[in-house]
Specification:
The chain contains 1 helix and 50 strands. The longest helix is centred in the N-terminal third of the chain and has 10 residues, at 173-182. The chain is mainly β and 673 residues long. The chain is rod-shaped and about 255 Å long. Helix content is 1%, strand content 38%.
């Protein structure tokens, strides 16, 4: 059943028996007593009604009762009802008195920092009820809803009676502190309400709050190194109030400034400082800064590869944007003198390629690495190979292999085509006659190049020509060989006798030549070609003196010559004067015919090779008988006279003293042609 804005609770039950009249309750029963009366009359019901008179004094009841025969109903009461049907009664009147009013609080809500003294909570006096009041203060830390329902006296869960505030109209400072302490104290919102009791009625004030703010030290979180343009802040949550992020230096957008873990975007390169400010309500604000360092990845550059000749070098890495770079040896050999210096020196470099790595730390970004190769060249001395003598127009070079890089052949002098200039053993074609110089150049990286020359001599076969055979008269002569195209020719004695004064001279002199034929050989070396030889005969003639034989006087027209035999060659008779036919001119003992009368002169000529011919004449006188005529006799007076004989046709006439006396001054008289 309901009583307008208020409510009553009741139990209506039918009780058998004769019903009677339910009388008006007496004042002694009190305004808030239970009403219980039995209706008069047979079979009447008994009704029990509980009414809360602490509210309005007019109620409306709707009653449904089943019962037997009942009695009468009086005003303000419910009687037992007769009959079997339920009956309805309206406008049942309650006794008239004022409702209980708790009174209002005159103190407002409070906010203060823990440790500060609160203010007392004051309230007006309650009104209504039966005009006698007692008070009890309650507090809670969980919620500030009404602590009770209706006029109940027991609070809802979570409310605690303040022990130091029993029956006080106002809650003193000590009472407030006691309530906080009874609830455990600490930061939070405390709700206070006062309960008023009047008789058996209760009334509650509205709540008043006391908020205790806890001072929280701002903690912006650890500094961060990030690689991206975004990050997440890590501030602590405020115990009370609201925290706020602000940018102090650098750059960056705070996406949610009041969130302890706000995101950040558009972070600047390097250090960006953000401040976390905690608004601690009534407590002092607290601030803390955090540095978000955005690393920009630096790409490691170890520098260009190097070729060096020495065992030392200098690295050329780039400087790190942040932190310290580090050199490490990856392969090869070498000592890094200052591993953290971009331009560290190197010592004890290994021969060949040595790889070093430059690692740059990039904060929260990934490290960057780059390698550089320092190649230490070991100088190789070029060796073009031994000089060569060849007969053909082709040859094969014999250079040594380079330790590094590629060697190169070049033509320095002469002629020739290098078939593979970069091959140590390249072929050669079209070689020029004589010396052809080729250079083998070895690159030695950063060391100086090395060069060596080789001479490829192409011999052109020269045919030896010892010169024409010679006939000489002396024991000396001069040879006439041809000059060699290459090398030195040599004379040798093959047969006969003779001394070669300069055996390697084509025109060497000869001494002590043997008589007759002396054979000398001229040998020409032709390098790698076969030697060539030619012989020359130097015939030394020994001069033979021609002897034509004794003159002859013959009477006949024939005679026989008596020349000596030639040592060499063939002698020859010739008619010099007179007349006569030489029957065999080359025969030393040739016959003569048709001799002229008188003296006939014949010449015997002996050839002596290179010596001068030798000649001798013989006179063959053919006598023709002549009668001597001594001339006429003379008579002289003196002791001298001149004879007057006739001239002999041939021969010589002779005067002889026959008798008498006288000296013949020129006895013989011979006529020769």
């Amino acid at each position: 059943m309901s009583f307008g804005a208020s409510s009553i609770g009741g139990t209506i039950s039918a009780v058998g028996g004769n019903g009677g009249v339910a009388n008006y309750p007496g004042t002694a029963e009190g305004a808030c007593n239970n009403l219980a009366r039995s209706g008069g009359g047979g079979g009447g019901g008994r009704v029990k009604i509980i009414v809360n008179p602490c509210h309005t004094n007019t109620v409306t009841a709707t009653v449904s009762v089943n019962g037997g025969s009942g009695g009468a109903a009086n005003n303000g009461h419910v009687a037992g009802l007769g009959g079997s049907a339920g009956s309805y009664f309206n406008n049942i009147q309650h006794p008239s008195y004022s409702s209980l009013v708790a009174g209002t609080l005159t103190s407002g809500n409070q906010t203060l920092c823990i440790g500060s003294s609160p203010a007392a909570i004051n309230a007006n006096v309650s009104t209504g009820g039966v005009n006698t009041y007692s008070y009890q203060w309650y507090a809670t830390k969980t919620a500030c809803a009404s602590p009770t329902t209706g006029t109940g006296s027991s609070p809802n869960s979570g409310w605690l009676a303040i022990s130091a505030s029993s029956n006080t109209q106002n809650l003193s400072v000590a009472g407030v502190q006691q309530g906080i302490a009874d609830l455990g104290g600490g930061q939070g919102t405390y709700c206070f309400q006062r309960r008023t009791q009047s008789g058996n009625c209760f009334a509650w004030t509205t709540s008043v709050t006391l908020t205790l703010d806890q001072f929280t030290t701002a903690a912006a979180g650890p500094d961060q190194d990030v690689c991206a343009t975004t990050a997440t802040l890590a501030g602590n949550a405020p115990a009370t109030g609201v925290g706020t992020w602000t940018l102090i230096s650098g750059a960056g957008t705070i996406t949610t400034p009041t969130s302890p873990t706000s995101g950040l975007t558009a972070l600047g390169v390097g250090a960006n400082t953000f401040r976390w400010t905690l608004l601690n309500g009534s407590c002092a604000d607290s601030q803390d800064d955090v540095i978000i360092t955005r690393s920009v990845a630096t790409t490691a550059a170890a520098g260009p590869d190097q070729d060096v000749c020495a065992t030392t070098a200098t690295l050329a890495g780039n400087a790190p944007a942040t932190g310290v770079g580090t050199w490490t040896l990856i392969s090869g050999a070498g000592t890094i003198t200052t591993p953290t210096s971009p331009t560290s020196g190197l010592t004890a470099l290994g021969a060949g390629a040595n790889t070093f790595r430059w690692t740059l730390p990039n904060g929260s970004c990934a490290d960057s690495q780059d390698d550089v190769i320092i190649t230490r060249s070991v100088a190789t001395t070029a060796a073009a190979g031994p000089d060569q003598d060849v007969c053909a127009t082709t040859a094969t070079l014999a250079g040594n292999a380079p330790a590094t890089g590629v060697g190169t052949w070049t033509l320095i002098s002469g002629a020739g085509t290098i078939t593979t200039p970069t091959s140590p053993t390249s072929g050669l074609t079209a070689l020029g006659a004589g010396a052809n110089t080729f250079r083998w150049t070895l690159p030695n990286g950063s060391c100086a190049d090395s060069q060596d020359d080789v001479i490829i001599t192409r011999s052109v076969a020269t045919t030896a020509a010892a010169g024409p055979d010679q006939d000489v008269c002396a024991t000396t002569a001069t040879l006439a060989g041809n000059a060699p195209a290459t090398g030195v020719g040599t004379w040798t004695l093959i047969s006969g006798a003779g001394t070669i004064t300069t055996p390697t001279s084509p025109t060497s002199g000869l001494t002590a030549l043997g008589a007759g034929a002396n054979t000398f050989r001229w040998t020409l070396p032709n390098g790698s070609c076969a030697d060539s030889q030619d012989d020359v005969i130097i015939t030394r003639s020994v001069a033979t003196t021609a002897a034509a034989g004794p003159d002859q006087d013959v009477c006949a027209t024939t005679a026989t010559l008596a020349g000596n035999a030639p040592a060499t060659g063939v002698g020859t008779w010739t008619l010099i004067s007179g007349a006569g036919t030489i029957t065999t001119p080359t025969s030393p003992t040739s016959g003569l015919t048709a001799l002229g009368a008188g003296a006939n002169t014949f010449r015997w000529t002996l050839p002596n090779g290179s010596c001068t011919d030798s000649q001798d004449d013989v006179v063959i006188t053919r006598s023709v008988a002549t009668t001597a005529a001594a001339g006429p006799d003379q008579d002289v007076c003196a002791t001298t006279a001149t004879l007057a004989g006739n001239a002999p046709a041939t021969g010589v006439g002779t005067w002889t003293l026959i008798s008498g006396a006288g000296t013949i001054t020129t006895p013989p008289l011979r006529h020769r042609a």
